[in-house]
Design brief:
34% strand, single chain, 20% helix
């Protein structure tokens, strides 16, 4: 059976948290096991989405809405020396990306008690999905569910499957100067680079003229 050269030592995907204010990575949350399957959905943003608009039908008003869905499995029994709390650390690391910081909540309560109004909440760290070096995308989690199916004596989960849905953030979401915009443009550039390799004559689809 033919195998990919990388099959012996596969690259591990995962998430990276980027501190926008400090412009540095905070931590990575790698997948213990890479997903077996991954579903990608793209929804184009056409300027002429309404039928009959002949002037706009071929125009694109922005990047498509791109989303990913996958399952990530974790098993603490593979690392018994680091499994004092089971999978609670890694699961919590994923979950807190969707929470405002506790210190921000307390500061907000203090302001409310003083009769002050916070103009805008502090910006949370940027979440980056890494699926190999050629697919690095700024994302926002849109779906998240955990199935815990094995526990230790202290009821800590030691085996779990995390089902995740994310939406890729584009320059429309964060702007061009933001780190997320920079990463998105890199993601876009990689796609265009791969697409440029496909240059086939129309004869390949059974046509001699069009």
């Amino acid at each position: 059976m033919t195998r990919f050269p990388e099959a012996a030592q596969p690259v591990r995907g995962g998430f990276v948290l980027w501190d926008v204010a400090e412009r540095r990575p905070l931590k990575s949350i790698p997948f213990q096991f890479n997903p077996d399957t991954l579903t990608r959905t793209l929804q184009p943003q056409g300027a002429g989405d309404e039928s009959g608009d002949r002037l706009e039908v071929l125009r694109l008003k922005g990047p498509p809405h791109e989303s990913y869905k996958f399952d990530a499995e974790f098993d603490a029994t593979d690392y018994p020396d680091r499994a004092r709390d089971g999978l609670l650390p890694v699961l919590s690391a994923l979950e807190v990306t969707m929470y405002p910081r506790r210190t921000d909540l307390l500061a907000e309560r203090t302001l409310a008690e003083q009769g002050a109004i916070e103009i805008a909440p502090l910006e949370a760290p940027l979440l980056v999905l890494v699926l190999g070096k050629k697919r690095v995308m700024p994302v926002r989690i849109t779906e998240f569910s955990v199935t815990e199916d094995m526990f230790d004596a202290a009821l800590n989960p030691v085996r779990a499957k995390v089902s995740v849905g994310v939406r890729v953030l584009t320059v429309d979401d964060v702007g061009y100067a933001h780190k997320g915009g920079e990463l998105y443009l890199g993601h876009h550039r990689e796609k265009e680079g791969f697409a440029s390799r496909v240059i086939n004559p129309i004869a390949d689809v059974g046509l001699t003229t069009l």
